[in-house]
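Support reply, case 0932

Customer input (verbatim):
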Amino acid sequence: MNRPIKKWRVGNIECAVWDNKKTFNGGEVSYKTMTLSRSYKKKDEEIWRSEAINNLRRNDIAKLMAILQKAQDYLFFEDIKPHEDGKEEDAEEEDE
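Our regenerated output:
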C-alpha cells in the first residue's frame, strides 16, 4: 500500500504529501502530489472518519493556510537533492 512521505495535522485538517512515479520518455520520473482531508465523527458514532476537502468552512481557512505553508516549506526547502556539481537542485524541477 502506498503511504504518504510526509503528513501534517492542524486540528481536524490533514495534509499528506505523496511520492509518485511514472514512465516518461523511456525513464522513470518522480513527482509529488498533496491531498487535503478533514476528520470528523458522526453524531451517534465513536468512529473517526476522513473526507477529502472540497467544501471549505470559514474556520478551515486559517488551518489550511498554516498546513499548506508547512507543505510548501517541505517541498521547496527539505526536498532538495544535491546536484553532481555540488549545487543544490530542486528535485521537483528535475522531474518536469
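We compared this against your earlier run and they match. Two observations from our side: Residues 41 and 47 are 6 Å apart (CA to CA). The chain has a mean pLDDT of 84. Please reopen the case if you see a mismatch on your end.
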